[in-house]
Here is the input.
Amino acid sequence: MGRRVGMSTGYDALEDKFLKPEKGKRTMLRMVKDIFYWKKESAQFVISVVVTAIAGVLYPLALGFAVNSILSRNAHLLLVYATLFFLLYFVQFFSNRWMALSSTKVAQGVIKRMRDRSFEKLQRVPLEFFSKVKVGYLISRISNDSESISDFLTYQLPQVISGVTTIIIAAGIMFHLDTRLALYSLIVMPILGIFTITLQTRVRSNYLRTRRAIAAITGNLAETIAAIRTVKAFNIESHTESKFESLNSDNFRANMVATRLSSFYSSIIRVIEAVGMVLVIYEGSISLLNGQISLGIVVAFIAYVQQFFNPIVQLSQLYNTYQNSVVGASRIYSIIDSNPDSDFGKDPIPAFSDSIITDKIKATYESSVALSNISIEIKKGECVAIVGRTGAGKTTLTNVILKFKSPEEGEITIDMKNLWSVETREYRKLIIPVLQEPFLFNGSIFENIEYSKRGITREEVLSLIKRYGMNEIFHSLPKGLDSPVGEMGRNLSEGQRQAVSIMRAFVRNPDIIIMDEATAQIDSKSEKSIITAMRNYTKNGTLILISHRFSLITLADRIIVLEKGMVVQEGTLDYLSKEEGIFTELYRRSLNTFSGKAE
Amino acid sequence: MSVDRVQLKVRLGSFLKVFEPVLFARPYLKNRRGIFTLVIVAGMVSNFTLLLVPIYIGDAVSALEAGDYSSILHISILIVIAYSISGMVSFIVNYGGQYISQTFAFNLRKDLVAHLVRKRFLFFETQTSGDLLSRGTMDIEATRNFNLSMFTNLFPTIFLIIEAFVLLFLVSPLFSLLLALIVPVLIILGMLSSRRQRPIWKEIRTTYGKLGETLQENVVGQRVVRGLAAENQEVDKYSAMTKEYYDENYRVVKSRNTFNNLMPLAVAVVSSSVIGFGGYLDLVNRTSVGGLVAAVTIFAMLTSPVSFLGRMIVFSENSRAAIGRIQEITASGGEEDVASSGESLLPGMLGFDHVRFTRGDIVILKDVTFRALPGEFIGITGKTGAGKTSMVNLITRYYDSDSGVISIGSRNIKDIPISLLRSRISIVPQEIILLSGTIKENILFGIQASDAEVKRASALASISEFIESLPLKYDTVIGERGITLSGGQRQRIAIARAVLRNPLILILDDATSSVDPDTEISIFDNLKASLKDTIILMISLRASALSFANKVLVIEEGELKEETYGEEGRYVDRI
Here is the structure.
């Protein structure tokens, strides 16, 4: 178990390196800025809290005056102060309502913006980001951590503001009533301050640990859910459970450590409070004995000392929740602060008119070289096949062409413009990839196709499906285009998913299509009709095919053979089948059949 | 009259439902009764001592009024002692309460995962992972938080109200009567108000689940989102959802607002009348004001526990909505018995006998009959969507056939324990899932095997050369979804994982689709040569792969159209 704990901290350390959490102070300032982003709401919020607090501070005054009026046997004044006492509560009734509404608006507004901004940032970060940070951990930050902030803002921040207001007013009144007595009540403050500061670092690191522990749980659970079919297939349910259990108990322990300290803290605070209060009572009674003050004032003073200490105790307890939410906020800010994809480019690229040329490209993952010295040219209207063994760099090459990955060396140009200077999103409207793993969104088949072209009608989609010879693929689905595909398209077969993702690309009628093993799970007859129909349809279109399937390769005008990240052969099928090399090694069997058929 | 009584009963019933989350926690807190009781008692003691303070202050005021200054010191010491005891005892309350609530969450999470991994495949078709995830995290957290408040505050609060009642009674029976009147009225009002909030809380929990779902989908599908330049579309979609969450949270506050603030107001009405009326009596009777001050202070102290009760009534709805979602997982049903049985499964013929399989209204397999002997290499092919994967999914009992018998040896697979069945059948699915961890951990995948065995399995899958070219070899850590590996490399690691188990039946579901033809040939050669007693079922669309099979089953319209026996081991593509 110890080892596994080590592993999870290993990931946390990596994640922290990648998503640097900010210092507590700066995070707090940013949170304040985020709160005041909601100008109207935060103004309402602050006003209502202050009004509530002021009304709260004034009760004892009303009570003290009422007591005095009883002692002076003045029934009229008693009625006035009793009414005032009630009115103060009545004001509070309204200001409290106002406060609840505005604090919810502020809190929910703040976390909505945090979530929206981090979500938006996720659409802009380089793709490598996602191979470094786990999905579950991201969800934990964006969903769970922001929830702890909302709790703090909705329930605790009002207490903080009203606490501070109360302390100021109570102190003011106390000084006004009797300076000497007031000073006595402040004696314990430095002790309180020193005590709090001493514990600060430990409290914060405790909360950081709890947030990490719950993120680890979320991460593990997310992975288990994603892998559930494999877990069941290999009957490793109990293994999975024990892995989860160790994270679960890490979380338990982290929380208990944090609680132990904060409980200890609040207990001590209470004792300090009692000492402060007794000092005042004692000193007050001596003043009364000396005839310096009236009994009413002593009563009011005792009430104020409580008013004064209650928020201080509360604030010190809130300090723990505050730390918790600051830690949460810093984890979200670190996502918002991630660097976006370095170069988005500005040059417009309305259409593809000539060629894509790569010049001596080199690309690496971590330290291993994926592509080196690649110089190829793809002309408009061409159908180019890229073949090679697994791991030869085919997908990396498409990632570079799609601007998913930037090459370390070399240059790519499209129509003589540097690819990194053209506007990425406009470029990606020209070039549509159909990827190895057909990812679908939860929804119907039609919704998935509509995703790439808003406003397309069912009829149009149906006629396209027919044109591409794909109707049989969807034959077995009861609701046709309206069949739900399930999460990640799991309710469909892999082949059906590929067909949908192909349709999704075709409806855009793009200038260039890149197909990365996009028909691997489609039967060869349907595959052929898809390819043929597409070739006819996109007479002027450009097609880049990555495939192991010989049947597909035969459709290409030109074949590029990759091996260990380099171009080793290039030419037409005829040419390559005669040249002894990787290509003939890979396709000897198929070539035999092929030439057999041809003869 | 009788209608009223029924309504009252309904209200009482719904009042008791406030405690549902606590009852829900009971089975997860076995053997924690002692600490639980300790926390409750400590909470009461803490509150009791705190409530003594206004009495002491009242005494102090009376003493001052009477000029009895000597008792002031005495009273001061009592106050310090009361606060100190309350402080010490509240440590037990805070720490012990947290201990119980964390134990509850720990056990609940454990139970949830135990149920989750045992759910049948059908369950996961109806759920999304983002939503399941939020049930396992935030829904549990919401329930834990509510219960923490209940454990630490509920009994002390009730106790405090009763104690206040008693103390007030001692000061003035009239005042205590007032208290006895308002509390039940407030509780009934609370019930009425919370009923309106129930649906909104449910929506909030559901929307929260959807937020996680959308986020997860977006992250997993980033390449598609970017490839289709649909980033802004996604941002709009997510933003619409966070707006919904915002609105729902606002609505719930709006609806609970009036009631929540009515509680302190009611207390205020009572305490102002105490000042007015009680003060008048003191004034007329020239009695001591100490009792009055004490009474008002007691009322002031009651404001927060009464508000607490109101809040609990409201948040109980949130917690119950969360529990409802958790119970969809923890309620048994639709679960598989995956415990290992100690039995063993002998090699034998795999038989499909008139197997029929439907999903809803659709017939996937009409009537399938075939046999496969140990050592045979069977190809399965058919059009996209023909039911190839469905057929092999029946062998591992991910789904059960509607009729017909599937048997291994002479045993019906329905009579074989699932754990035994699945541990003897290895499957390489279309969608390869690798867990975060090292390559070796992914090949072992929960079983014990020597390094040599792992190497041998990797060699069979033609991946050992690649693994050994990595600096850390088998200890190389791979990303969460194996992102840094190519499709073909992942498939081959999955093949190594399947082969390592030396299975009776090996199912390759298009398992070499991303592997180059050259390597594919060597993998098949290896498998054929070394798995002599294994039935290999290979789903493929590639003629080159199918040519390895001893026989090829073609699925068409839910039936095996023909069993094509390879001529000299060659299969001719007919589809």
Summary: Residues 237-289 of chain A form the longest helix (53 residues). Chain A has 20 helices and ten strands. The CA atoms of residues 578 and 584 of chain A lie 8 Å apart. Chain A touches chain B through 176 residues (CB under 8 Å).
